[in-house]
Amino acid sequence: LKFGSKEGAISYPTESTSVIPQRSVAVQRRNTSELLQRSIAVTAMATPPAGAASPVALGERQPLLSPDQKLGATPTSLLDDEWDSTHYDITKMTSWAVFGMVTGCAWDNYSLWRCTGCAILLSCTVAVIIVFIPHSSLVAPEKVEKMGTFLNVFVGLLLGFFLSSSMNRWYRCVSAFLELLDAVRSMQMQMTALGVTQERTNMLSRYGLLSAWLLHLSLNMEANEGIPDESEEAHGSSAKTKRLWQSLEAKRPGLVLPKEKELLMQHDESYALLWTWVASLIGRMAQNGEIPPMPSPTYGRIVNIVQEAFGSIRDVRALRLIKAPFIYAHTLAVLVHVNNILNAIGFGLVLGLALLQVLGNGKVYNSTSWANICCSLFMQFCFSMVGPLLYLALLEVSVCVAQPFTYQDAKIPACKFLKGLEEDLKNAAAMGDDPPHWEKPCFKTK
Hints:
The chain is an all-alpha fold. It contains 14 helices and no strands. It has helices spanning 25-43, 55-60, 75-80, 110-132, 141-145, 152-194, 198-219, 239-251, 258-264, 270-288, 297-321, 326-359, 370-402, 414-433. The longest helix is centred in the middle third of the chain and has 43 residues, at 152-194.
């Protein structure tokens, strides 16, 4: 972790100077110099002498953001390139400036305009057929205009329910993922309050951060690009697991030790099994006297944090795997497309009858004025083409929002949350390592 200096710290006035004496300028400079030297030593990952500590303890002295990651292509640059569907100016939604917001909206969708183009092509085909069919002028245009509108209300009601369910699903996914990140922060706060050594605290924070990264990458495995796919299995790890760890090394290197990686690659859901290591480490720390013993309420609170993290992972996985029933989603999609087709046919019939009135001597309409013909075409276009287009857009939005880890337009900004988690862990460690007016706590007596 990168510790900050105390030169810019705020000094709080006290009523009694005898309780907390003020340090001289020379002492402050000496302490500041020692703190800067320790920060440089930690940042450079200075290797301690051989035999001074165990290999695991030596590995834990690596900062969460190593110097190698701060040079060249950093993880921060990768995070900044991710599209954030929640970053927008909501004040523009109440003005006509909303029509200029194209990126990430429902209209920036190829499948939507492809279906609309097919509907327009179908309408033109029907209009041409009507022109060349004999006695087609006997068809009453008022009845034709009502043909494609009987499903509009029913489809709109079903889409409203589906969209509401999809939004609730999206918010639940975000809440579950944020609960996992909050569990990592709470674990670090508990260790700081108990005065646990920096190596142990870093190990727990690193395991929590690694679990969050693995969960994020596994849920977005289909969207990961630039990672070679391998079909063969080696060392007990599947091709999907190998792609997951390759993606982790590409986007967040230096977060796992080689021995830990070798053990975790043997399991597909390693992001959940990491909390088994955390629970085991907590139990060992309780036996060693580094934290309160197992029968104490404090130990129960720490174990409860582990359970909350594991429960949040289970919730995210459930929301990712369990979708809406196929019979419901398929029926709703069929109704939307059938409504679109019927409206396109209805508009094509009205368009063909209007062409007969204009080009020939038909008597389709009571009045042959251009105003009546144009008004009838415009009204039918709004009901039969614009309305179904809006319903199709709502279907696209509902499907995207229902899968927050699949579609880019509604994807959860997990990378932004992970970046904020790393910053919070770094800042909390810096503040907890150097209190302003008191010594660091220590539960284990030296």
